[in-house]
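Marked as duplicate of an earlier ticket. Keeping the data here for the record.
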Amino acid sequence: MSPTPLTLPSSSPHPLPPGPHYACTTCATPLALQDELVSRSFSGREGRAFLLRTVVNVTMGEAHERNLLTGLHIVADIHCATCAAPLGWAYLRAMEQGQKYKEGKYIVERNRVGKDNDWS
């Protein structure tokens, strides 16, 4: 089964409104506005990570259980829709009540995204 796109169908990436945003370090595709940042204090598979409310221009893999530092979660890996670089994962379900706030949010590895301040 191929990943499910989380973007508008088109031949080019879904644009973001003007403003500071995060982009894929491999191909510079915009992924999320800086305003979508929930926390900088998360850990990913490769080190530090961001927790974001929403992302665009990603594909999502199949849901599966993953035992993380904070307990068991149902997650789906996310990749850049343009270049297929792995970016992190989507929290689909948290098993512990204290972790429910993560549901519907996204972990993006810091080393997989760069910040574009959009200063012109």
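See parent ticket for discussion. DSSP finds no helices and eleven strands in the chain.
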